[in-house]
Amino acid sequence: MFLKRVELTGFKSFAAKTAVEFLPGVSIIVGPNGCGKSNIFDAVRWVLGEQSAKSLRGTKMDDVIFAGSASFKALSYAQVTLVISNENKKIPLDFTEISVTRRLFKTGESEYLLNKVNCRLKDIVDLFRDTGVGMDAYSFMEQGRVDQIIKSKPQDRRFIFEEAAGISKYKARKEEALRKLIRTEEDLLRVSDLIEEVRKNAESLKRQASKAERYKRLAAEYNEIEKRLLILRTQHLKEMSALVESQYGDVQARHAELSAKIAKLNSQNEESRSQSDNLAQELSESQSLAFELNTEIEKNRHQISLFKERIENADQTSAKLDIELADDRKRAAAFEQSIENIQNDFHNSEKILKETETAYQEKKARFESLKQTRQQRLLELEERRAEQSRHTTDKSRLQNEMRYVEAMLSQLQTQIMENKEVVASEKNQLDELLASLGERRQSLQTCEGEIAAIRETINAALSELKQKDSDYNNGCAEHQGLVARLRDAESRLRALEELKQNYEGFERGVKTIMKAAEKGEMDGFGMTIASCITIPERYEQAMEIALGAGLQAIVSSDIEKAQCALDYLKEKKAGQAGFLPKDFAYFENTNGHMKPILDSEGVIDLARNLVEADEEQKPLFDALLGDTLIVDNLCTARRLISEGKRARFITLEGDCVEKNGLIIGGSEKRSGILSRERESRDLVKQIAQMKKQSQDLSQRLDLAKSEIESIRFRIDNLNAKLHARELDKAALLKDVDAAEKKYQDKLNALRTIEDKIAQNNSELGRYQQTIEQNIKQISALEQKIQSTQKIMDDLISSIDADKNEQEQLDETVSGLLMEQTRQRERYTALQQRLSAAKADLQSCRAAISKKSDEIKTIVERKAETIVSLKNTKETIQSLVCEKEELEREISLRVQERDTLILQLKKLGQEVSVLQRDFNEVQNTLHELDLKRTQHSTQLENLSQQAEEKFQKNLDAIVQEAGEVNGDRDQLINQMGEIKDKIDHIGPINAAAIDQYQDAIERYEFLASQQKDLTDAKDSLKKTIAHIDQTTTQLFNEAFEKIREYFIETFRTLFNGGRADLIVVHDPEHPNQEPGIDIIAQPPGKKLQNISLLSGGEKSLASVALLFAIFKFKPSPFCLLDEIDASLDDANVERFKELLLEFANRTQFIVVTHNKQTMALADTVYGVTMEEKGVSKLVSVKFENIEQTQLAS
């Protein structure tokens, strides 16, 4: 399994789709700062589920979407795909290649795909769990993460070890099991509440169902009587409807006769009115025509005034234009003279400008020629100077080299003598170091024995602590269970008190009186019989039968109070209640004749003797129970009666045998009033007892906790002692290592000195040969320097002469250039004046032409206006004659209209008389029609009422019932009586019968659910315990292996020293999992916590831990982001060696700037940023390059 490819589209700086192909081995990613190297690292973490924008170097998650650049538009989404080779099936999927994709849109929507199929983030996390690959796994290491490992608390550092141990999946299962356990306990609590609620509801529904049955029976009787009343009303309405139909026919005939007469008169009236309307129309048209003629006459008169005004304006405008025309002609002559003068000056300026330009061009050409020649000579001079400098530099270098070689010759001779003396001294010191090393190894063995003894003592104390912790946890669990039972008992007591306060189980009349007494509306009523009695549980059922209705009787102070209460119930129609006045209770003591019966077998006692009550209330129970006897069963009662011992017998099962032989028994649900009172008293006692138990248990737990703290304190002291001895051991190890290293260093130094003596003798001959060669080269360079200097002097003389002539020409060319500029400006100004003068002349001539045309037009319009004036006067004369003729015609038509109006008035009076008679008949007909409608509506209402109440058609009801006779008032009275009975029942729940059955079924269902939840809770607790045991075992095994590998890897990377991993318990949180601390001792330093090391040492120690984990559980691939940044060259070399050791098992992808690390690469990827903000990728495979070189 390895990472084959990463595809990035729109992720951070990768705007275009970019595919990074990886191969097994070591791949290096390089590039300048800020080019986007680390974005590849971030992309892999992101696609594996990283949810923190801060971890991806952003502020919000959509910062990973490409934001645009100068030539690339911003994208609307970011997408990254990982392609992983799965040929070894390490990932449990039946694919040899797996692709994981994450896509994020600007809108905030996000999606994950597995092999191009949508999935959840949880699916991806679970897929890579315990493979060493994941967003927070040890396979992703960056420079900041290295510091995080060092600075983390011991408990936080534990996560890396758990990932390596492969217990992440177990912890995930445990978390899921804990969530399920919490949900199960919550569901169990809810189900228990629901069961209690459903039980109470079922009891209430049972009473409601009984009332509903009684209500249904009365409602059926009520509906039957209502049907009979409905039929009687229907018969009455049909008779009334037939009478109204007869009257309606007579009135309708009279209505038709009057309607014909009125129609005839209306026709005559309409004819006359039509003639009048025609005359009025003609008269209106004539008047309109007369008005139009008047308007036209006035319009023509106004037109004449306008024509006169136009003629006068034309004369004035013509005179004004003649004056302006003369002025424009004078201005045109002046412009022509000015143009002639400007043209003469323009020709002179043009001639001078051409002469100046010719002189300027000649001088400028000579200046450029000199400039080019001088430039060539300067270039040649620079070349000669450079050549001279090279010769001088070579000479100086050779002279310096000679001086250095001479000094080295002298130094080598001195070193050879000194080294021979050192060799003799080092051999003596080696013998002394070997003796010292033996003594220190003996001390180290003694220290290790003491450490082993302390560890055995600690293990024994830890076992004792574990037992104490287990006892303490069991005690806590017992205490929690006791508290839960106490809470349940208090809750049950509150519920019973609430039932007692609401008088549940009592009759409606009892509830009414007792609540009225509590509100102060009535006095003299303090309690019921049930509330002031105490009976053993064994006799509760028998005593309820014995007391009967008296159980719910209300104790009153006197008979008057009882009478007032009865009147109150009758007034409120609130049901019935029993009362037992204290001054009215009577009991005749017959203990004498009851003694033979009491002595009989099976007789328990008199019922009144079994009652526990205050002395003040005792007479009340004597009066209620009298000589009632409690026997064990019905057979005993039968036997006593057959023996002639008659009394009222009550069996323990609730059967009753009266003195007269009446036997009452069977099965009936008890009211539960006595059991409720007893349960309340028992709960009060239980609550007090449980509170005392809870207090005692708390004291024992506090004592156990103090014992645990004492053991922990002892363990801490032993750990401190162990730590001190381990520090001593570390110091001894350090001394042994130092002695071994010193011995080895001395031995290596001796061999090095001997090799150096031989090397120095060889170098003496080489230095002498170098001195002879340098003397010959210096002589040749001195000759070249003299020849080059002569050529340079000649060139400098020529350059100075050219410079003087060039300066003189520069002044002449500048003067000519200024004169040329001045003449060109004058030429341009004259040209502009000439153009302006010509434009003014053209404008003046255009104005003269325009004004001449205007004068001609005015004269023509004046003539046309005079003709129009004459025609308008003739039109006015014709219109006046036409108007006079029209006014005579209008007068005749007004007279005809007045005559028709008189005729219309007479016809209107005749119509009014007939209309009055017609309206009277119409009203009568309307009244009859209204009665028909009312009868029809009433019949429809009765039919609708029948449909709504009986779901049958009215005719069907009449047909079923046949002829109905009877007194309607009597039927109504019967309905009233039934309605009173229904009202006496009170509010009913019609659905109570079905609801009661549903409640019973629901109660049974919830009970089964409660059992299932309890079983599930126990199963989850066992599962969690098993997971804890498994994870502890796996962690301990992994820790010991990683610790062993870490010690080994640390010594390799630091070239000595020692380190260790220690399990640390937090005394403030004893139940928390222990953390892991790192102890390190680089060579030459004291043993100390890793946080006290330098930056480079911390990085190297973290790398050691990382590779120790890899050695225990290699990850398929690993990404390292500049973790070598803080390492020096020597440490980088050791880091490289370790990386190569693991490269055959793990694929490494390394982001780095270090050239030494780059040398490891099988493939190098270069990230560039040709355009600001857009990253591009180039790659090189070194295997291909080597093959190409070998082929060539």
Number of strands: 23
Q: Report the biggest beta sheet as strand number plus sense, adding barrel if it closes.
A: 6 strands, antiparallel
**Regarding CATH, which class of the domain at 1-134 and 1120-1191?**
Alpha Beta
| Beta strand % | 5-15%
Strand order of the largest sheet: 2-1-4-5-6-7
Oligomeric description of these chains: single chain
Helix content: over 70%
Q: What name goes with the CATH superfamily of the domain at 1-134 and 1120-1191?
A: P-loop containing nucleotide triphosphate hydrolases
Count of DSSP H/I helices = 19
Model regions low in confidence, pLDDT < 50 over at least 5 residues: 1182-1192
**And the CATH topology of the domain at 1-134 and 1120-1191?**
Rossmann fold
Radius of gyration: 63 Å
Give a summary of the structure in a few sentences.
By secondary structure, the chain is an alpha/beta fold. The chain contains 19 helices and 23 strands. Helices cover 71% and strands 9% of the residues.
Describe this structure in words.
The chain is 71% helix and 9% strand. The protein is of the alpha/beta class and 1192 residues long. It is flat. It is built from 19 helices and 23 strands.
Name some characteristics of this structure.
alpha/beta; 6-stranded antiparallel sheet; 1192 residues; 23 strands; Rossmann fold
Write the layout of secondary structure elements.
Layout: E1 2-9, E2 18-21, E3 26-30, H1 37-47, E4 77-85, E5 97-105, E6 110-114, E7 117-119, H2 121-128, E8 140-142, H3 143-151, H4 154-165, H5 168-502, H6 508-518, E9 525-528, H7 540-547, E10 554-556, H8 559-572, E11 579-581, H9 591-598, E12 603-606, H10 618-625, E13 629-631, H11 634-642, E14 649-651, E15 656-657, E16 663-664, H12 673-950, H13 954-961, H14 968-985, H15 992-1054, E17 1058-1064, E18 1075-1081, E19 1088-1089, H16 1095-1112, E20 1117-1121, H17 1129-1143, E21 1147-1151, H18 1155-1158, E22 1163-1171, E23 1174-1181, H19 1182-1191
Helix pairs in contact: 3-16, 4-15, 5-12, 5-14, 5-15, 15-16, 16-17
